[in-house]
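Q: For a teaching handout, I want to show students what a protein-ligand complex looks like in token form. Below are the inputs, and the small molecule is cytidine-5'-monophosphate. Please produce the holo structure.
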Amino acid sequence: MNDLAGKHLVLGLSGGIACYKAAELCRALVKAGASVQVVMTEAAAHFITPTTMQALSGRAVFCSQWDERPAGGVDNSMAHINLSREADAIVVAPASADFMAKLIHGRADDLLSLMCLARPLDRVPLLLAPAMNREMWAHPATQRNVAQLRADGAVVLEVGVGEQACGEIGDGRMLEPDELLYDVSRLFRPKVLAGQQVVVSAGPTFEAIDPVRGLTNLSSGKMGFAIARAAHEAGASVTLVAGPVSLPTPRGVERINVRSALDMQRALNALTQTATVFISAAAVADWRPASTTDEKIKKDGSGRVPILEFVENPDILAGIAATPRARSGALYCVGFAAESHDLLAHAQAKRARKGVPLLVGNIGPDTFGQDDNALLLVDAHGTSELTRATKLQLARQLVGEIARRLPGAAAG
Ligand code: C5P
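A: Here is the structure, written as tokens, with cytidine-5'-monophosphate included.
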């Protein structure tokens, strides 16, 4: 998706073996619509060539503050000013231990550190992706520097864990290019849910009949996962309670896997005691077998079929919407409705029945398993439509709609 369309980024590389991942990151940033100006330290050029980065970014790479080529279209031999003024963000990946140590002192003896110092603090965010050996990362000096950089307004990302180029295993690897791409894109999303604790339920439930069989439905979980991602992009702390689906967990989101409606209810009841927003996108099975067997039910060859008895599952959302926290507005509840016809009437009726302030309707067969969807929002004031788009685009719009409705949100 073109998440970075119209954005101009400075991608800075300091010295470290993780420079090879910066090549892939550069490509991903360009693919996401950004224009990328690469700036490298002398140490970085020992690990990867400026030619590689030029080919991937489509722009001449700058390495020295003494470079006299016009920069940013201005021929004043001040690359550090010109390049930092035109940037929407400076992303340093990899950020070496030495480079970070330099930044905390405001030292500026090479083009990249000069640009970090010269950037307008109020409008050009600085994002650092550290990469180093685990002992270097754990050293009190590095940890002190990271804390100082954060206090000075830089966004210092966490590091990955695992096998390192030196052969040791531990913390200090640079994040992967796809993780960095997400973190860079997130930088530009409006933080409309900052400070909110959001709980999202997603996917189907599975109601066991015996150890190998069960009752479930076709929900893919895609909408709920997209909502969890959009809420995290918007600055919320997000917990996703997921039925059995194999989708990857959105970055930065805490995931709790559940199987049956009763498992899901237990998890959600606990989480919504402190959450501020609950978005119920799961397709909870309406019924479960009245009893399950520990052993597989066998065919006995007689042609007789087992008669299964079902009981109704609890309505998780209605139960949570009836709690004092939800009724007082401390917890804002959002329900979903998948209907095959008369969407408006059913959505309005469902909103009243569940006792939620906002009900989001979609046409079931049009959405299950698909990557795009269209939504109908029903609240106390009326209805509005979010026209067909990808589930992530809709999730972002929905998050904006929810943020507008939260107690204390600015009117309009
Ligand atoms: O009643 P129906 O299943 O159509 O309602 C859909 C909405 O209610 C969704 O938000 C779904 O997550 C929630 N729900 C629930 N517990 C159930 C059934 C549905 O929380 N047992």
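A: Two things your students might notice: The chain has a mean pLDDT of 94. The CA atoms of residues 201 and 241 lie 5 Å apart.
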